[in-house]
Amino acid sequence: MRDGVSARDDILRDVRRxxxxxRRPVDVPRDYRRERVVEAATVDLFAERVADYRAEVVRxxxxxxxxxxxxALPPHAQVVVPDGLPWAVPGAVPDDRLTPAHLDGxxxxxxxxxxxxxxxxxxxxxxxxxxxxxAITLVPDLHxxxxxxxxxxxxxxxxxxxxxPTRPTTWISGPSATSDIxxxxxxxxxGPRTLLVILAG
Amino acid sequence: MVTCLNDALFPxxxxxxxxxxxxxxxxxxxxxxxTCCGQPMVNTGYVEEAVPVVRNFVDAFAGYDAxxxxxxxxxxxVRHQHAIVGRRSGDVALQERIAETSPRVYxxxxxxxxxxxxxxxxxxxxxxVTYHPTCHSLRxxxxxxxxxxxxxxxxxxRLRELPQASECCGFGxxxxxxxxxxxxxxxxxxxxxxxxxxxxVLVAGDSSCLMHIGGLLGRQRSGVRVMHLAExxxxx
Amino acid sequence: MTSTFVGMPAFPEAARTALGDSQLRAxxxxxxxxxRAKRAxxxxxxxxxxxxxxxxxxxxxxxxxxxxxxxxRLEEALTANGAVVHWARDAEEACAVVAExxxxxxxxxxxxxxxxATAEIELNEHLEALGIAAWETDLAELIxxxxxxxxxxxLVPAIHRNRAEIRxxxxxxxxxxxxxxxxxxxxxxxxxxxxxxxxxxxxxxxAKVGVSGANFAVADSGTLVVVESEGNGRMCLTLPEVLVSVxxxxxxxxxxxxxxxxxxxxxxxxxxxxxxxxxxxxxxxxPGDGPQExxxxxxxxxxxxxxxxxxxxxxxxxxxxxxxxxxxxxxERTGGHxxxxxxxxxxxAILNPLLRGVGTDEQTDSLPYASSLCGACYExxxxxxxxxxxxxxxxxxxxxxxxxxxxxxxxxxxxxxAAAFSSAARMSLAEKVSGFAGRLLGWQLGRRxxxxxxxxxxxxxxxxxARDAPLPAAESFRSWWKRTGGRDA
Lengths: 201, 236, 489
Ligand code: SF4
Fold this sequence. Notes:
The complex is a heterotrimer. Chain A is of the alpha/beta class. Chain A is built from five helices and twelve strands. Chain A has helices spanning 7-19, 40-52, 65-72, 100-104, 156-162; strands spanning 56-60, 79-81, 92-94, 108-111, 115-117, 122-125, 142-148, 152-153, 169-172, 177-178, 186-187, 194-200. In chain A, strands 1-12-7-4-2-3 form a six-stranded parallel sheet, with helices on both faces. In chain A, strands 8-5-6-9 form a four-stranded mixed sheet. Chain A is globular. Chain B is built from 13 helices and six strands. Chain B has helices at 4-8, 11-23, 39-44, 47-61, 72-89, 92-101, 108-115, 135-140, 146-152, 175-178, 180-197, 207-219, 229-234; strands spanning 67-69, 105-107, 128-132, 158-160, 201-204, 225-228. In chain B, strands 4-3-5-6 form a four-stranded parallel sheet, sandwiched between helices. In chain B, strands 1-2 form a two-stranded parallel sheet. Chain B is globular, with a radius of gyration of 17 Å. The two termini of chain B are 23 Å apart. The mean pLDDT of chain B is 93. Chain C has two domains: 11-304, Rossmann fold (3-Layer(aba) Sandwich); 413-484, no CATH class. Chain C has 23 helices and twelve strands. Chain C is α/β, with parallel strands linked by helices. The chains are: A alpha/beta, B alpha/beta, C alpha/beta. Bound molecules: iron/sulfur cluster. Iron/sulfur cluster (SF4) binds next to helix 14 of chain C.
């Protein structure tokens, strides 16, 4: 409150004054590509673009997933796994409300994903069953992420349509990176420095 | 429309336009009432002062099929800024007359390629040349490769690529004086690229930019000459 | 309004100092040319780029012209999602909200995601005065904070620093702020990033309160979006118990599906990547996941003033990608500090005057002139902000602000020119005079027949300090035409 008027009322009043007679409906031209069919090449493109970010990509059939996960983890690694992960993971530590410090002491994390975007090489997690809360895919240094081929879509609009805006989402395009030193990309800052994607099916 | 700058400082560029258009069979007139497009005022913020200048412009050029100018910048001002000046004047009649004249104003290469439909203007200029696409011709008008298409048809002319061609030379009208240090820093880099191109002659479609780059090339005693596009196209 | 760096001189003077710093110019030229090439490559591979730009501009225009409705919807959705919504008219009110949240949890430190809004309101300085340390966690922000420096770029605030300088800052300053830099630190970017990782990790793990901005705020779902690279954003948004986000009121998007446009435009325009490494979205409080107390501060701080400007309001479409900085030939040479604000470059040259208003201080009024109007910024802007047109309009506002007072010498000169140009007769008289003066001057220099001048005394000296000036022609075109009718061309 300032002079008895709330900031909210003041700002809304100032907005209305500022717009004044200019208020009018604006047509948004949506003739960019909104919906695209997924073909076999889309999945190849996804693999290629994920690898472009210097993430490691392993392709396999659906029944090879567990073996690939096991092969991806260092020996005796302790890895956190979310509830609902459909694959068995050696050295699994269930996410039992682990503290950030505890997570920092683990070697990695294994999760599934919600969507893969081919054009941008992006994986989107929406942190439900099989993906877990946000912290578990953030603090450990290795993230093994299983994406099924049938989860891959062509472009960003296709992904947006599949996602629920009320859920937290994390869009991951390669390992953590920075361009802050002379605008050159360097992998590996605060998020997992190694991202390994198992593309199954 | 010869533009105020060409009129007083670079009449040869304007004469070259006359010579070139005559050669192509165009009936050329120079409405003597013309002065300036008003850009120096508008771009410095003196829109109010530009109103009588623009009024004078539409008076001078009313009734012509096409108004041709050897300046991307002046053509850009007419096509993009006269309407702004018109609105500021509050004079509806002036706004209507601006709407009539503005679209008929062409930069030289647009007129040659789009209106006359020629790319080979029958010129001969046996020199090594590099072309600087001035910002207003490139980005405001979108003349694209018209000038280089015209140049590539000139007999004997060897066209060299200008490194980082699309970067501004730093003239910018009032900017050259108000921010002289930055303007010179930009122009020096442009002059360096011109020298690196190995050309004997730098060609552009705006005398203002040429004056700026030429002034720097001159100070650096580079030996590179600057010429307006019209002068090259008029050479035989 | 606190978005000017204290005591900054007007642009031309600040630029002069910067131009003299050859290290700075080399750093900037290297960095901007790298990013320009990357952007051009990834934009070039999108065949519907122009359609996306048109859609992006239109969505933002729609937002701005109905901003009150969208803000009310955003507030409702956020509240329904368990967030606490605050409104702040200015920097002071916004800082007070953040300080109050921190104080209510008894903390003496917060961790921060890089955010232009919090830089604009100088939140760190405000919190520091209250004994609360605000740790910047973005690598470039960390470099600026440790170096007690000022930001000089929207995306990469430490763009003016090269790797050797960064190593020095880390070695000298990290210890005082927490975990020291490793003894054997080199200037390899990967080693520098590693040093930042180690230094900041202890701060992330113990932080109770996180502070962020937002790139977008979706009205219909109450979802905020942060786009980043390093994962420091995810750390701040996820690990603390409490999160406060300071969001400019123009950041609203009507619907979740509008993100399909902006999540394509922003990464390619800013870092020149197909997609930035991490994007986080969250809708208020998510039980069992992330902060359980979430605040959102909706910030005006001059935005409604900018919104009232018919020509300038398009600046509020800006998504802070910094593409306009990277292509700007003025920015590349003068650097960001010359603009005296957290918003430098072409967007800064319009946004600062629009947020603060013109006609009050010389520094702000100098910004619309800090451009050659080359138009490179407009060409790359993902939301098609016609920066050159806004610059020209703001120049008119600068000129108009003191009308009626004592005219500046520039006004006298341009008014005289306008008077001459408003009639051909007057113009030809003026030409005769100047032609005569030019010839006289040439003769005095003892160089008859010269066509250029090495030095003009008086106000023209700014030109001839480094450039030769042409002499007026002996015969103007006008006189030639009169004499010949154009026949002996
Ligand atoms: S003005 Fe346009 S190009 Fe510049 S930062 Fe904003 S959105 Fe990007």
